[in-house]
Amino acid sequence: WDEDNNIKTDSIAYNGFDYPYPNIGEFSVPLHADFHVYEIEWDKEMIAWKVDGVTFYLESITDSNKSEFHKDFFIIFNLAVGGNLGGTVDVNTFPLDNNNNPTPQNLYVDWVRVYQKEIPADLEFVVISSNTEVESDVVISDSTVGEWSTGTQIIPDATYEGKNCWELTSSTKSADDGNWGTVLAFQDGINGDFSNYSELKVSIATTGKYIAYKVSIVPQSGSNIDVVLPVNDEITSWQDISVNISGLTAIKQIAIFGEGGDIGVSKIYITDFKLVGGNETVSKTALIEAISTANTLLNTTVVGNADGQVSEADATTFANAITAAQAVNNKDDATQDEINAALSALTTATKSFQAAIIVEEEVFIIISSDLNIQSDVDITDSTVGEWSTGTDINPEGDYEDKNCWVLTTGTKPPAEGNWGAVLAFQNGINGDFSDYATLNVTLATSCDFNEYKVT
User: Fold this and answer.
1) What are the b/e assignments for 418-448, b being 16+ CB within 10 Å?
2) 17 pLDDT exceeds 50?
């Protein structure tokens, strides 16, 4: 608050700061006259301070020196007196009573609430688990497990380097007989809607000699989804693999395999094979910052017709855009696509609002059709010329109801220098023109010239 109007509030993240603090929120109404909702919205990226839902300060906590803000905190309420935060202690802050004693000042707290956003567990469809107590979500039977006619030997209850796993051994039959690789295929029993799954995870160990390692997902309809697994063929210990998948719906088959391999020798060990989805990590940081910036811009721009101001219509349009963005920000289940769309719309609205701010153009007048406007050129007989072309110059002409200068081509022949009709201001042009970007001129012509130029 400030000592005169009680319209300011402060926020501090105690991590190396200087006084005066830059994070002051200033509001249009006295904060002491009524109850207000003071709020801190805190996530893994940002702390936002708000009063009555309006964000007035943001503090990023992603840097390594802000690690303390990822630990547990507690709440205290304090009516500070004196100091940088408490303010000056005098008769303004503590008015004297009839006995010349300072009157007490009170802090009233109506309620305190703490909310924790519930994050549902990730979706997980387990195909194979190294934990024998975790059942597969696949309906496993002799008819649902196959090897796609490669002859692969499959052992579902093997152990390798301390992990329960499925062991696949290359068949002894030749490539001509269909042994193109070592395959474990779940050919049925995969039930559910997989549209919200986006990641495939698997742990693989191999004896090597394979050309490539892949997963093939066969949907109930449409084309197969084939994913190359980034397995190092020369490493025999366990490798944890994670790949992105998308576009899944209903799955008919899912197979994991190695192409090639030494016939009857090469082995692949498979465990912790699962599809993962559910929570899409969303970030509102950029949107929150954009809303804060937009609010500051709107609140510091005056409505009016003068330089640096905007029209009431433009201010209203911008305010509506901010409100729409804030609605998305307040939406707990907003998707990243919704957040990105709101950010894009607000960015466009901010640019439009900035462009609508009135800027008084700096104009240098050479000739005006308004006789009441004087030229900024120091016009004399010595400063106006025609570059030896013989052009006849009439500075007091009139054409189609406009006052103008009329240039008539000279009567001398081209051989004597009459190459065109010229009006040249050869001196008397004073000033710094580094900030000028546009030249405007209104021109009419008898259409007998090859081209028109300004030099």
Assistant:
1) bebbbbeeeeeeeeeeeeeeeeeeeeeeeee
2) no
- The residue from 253, 277, 301 where one domain ends is 277
Please check whether residues 273 and 290 belong to one and the same domain.
no
pLDDT score of 196: 78
Q: Name the token pair of 174.
A: 């030749």
- Look at 69-83, 276-290, 302-316 and tell me which has the smallest mean pLDDT: 276-290
Where residue 303 sits, what CATH number does that domain have? Answer: 1.20.1270.90
Token pair of 138, please? Answer: 């696949």
Burial of 173 per CB tally in 10 Å (0-12, 13-18, 19+): middle
**What whole-number distance in Å separates Cα of residue 398 and Cα of residue 400?**
7
The residue range of the domain holding 228 is 123-277
Which residues touch 360 (CB under 8 Å, ≥6 apart)? 307
In the numeric block, which tokens belong to residue 197?
Answer: 């799954």
What backbone torsions phi and psi does residue 112 show, to the nearest 5 degrees? -130, 130
Instruction: Give the up-direction half-sphere exposure of residue 237: CA atoms within 13 A in the CB hemisphere.
Output: 1
pLDDT at 397 over 90: yes
295 and 258, same domain (yes or no): no
HSE of 409 in the Cβ direction (CA atoms, 13 Å)? 13
Whether 57 has a pLDDT exceeding 70, the answer reads yes
Length of the chain as a residue count: 455
pLDDT at 382: 87
**In a 10 Å sphere around its CB, with 0-12 CB exposed, 13-18 middle and 19+ buried, how is residue 181 labelled?**
buried
Report pLDDT digits (tens) over 119-161: 555 688 999 999 999 999 999 988 899 999 999 999 999 999 9
Judgement on whether residues 57 and 94 belong to the same structural domain of the protein: yes
Residues linked to residue 425 through DSSP beta bridges, in sequence order: 384
Q: What total of structural domains would you count in the chain?
A: 4
Same domain, yes or no: 261 and 138: yes
Question: Which pLDDT value is given to residue 89?
Answer: 75
Which of 324, 356, 388 is the C-terminal boundary of a domain?
356
Residues 324, 389: one domain? no
The three-point CA angle 172-173-175 to 5° equals 120
Distance of alpha carbon 401 from alpha carbon 390, whole angstroms: 27
Q: Give pTM, 2 decimals.
A: 0.41
6/113: higher pLDDT: 113
Helix axes 285-300 and 312-330, enclosed angle (nearest 10): 150
Give kind and range of the element (H or E) at residue 388: none
Other residues' Cβ atoms within 10 Å of the Cβ of residue 339: 21
pLDDT at 1: 39
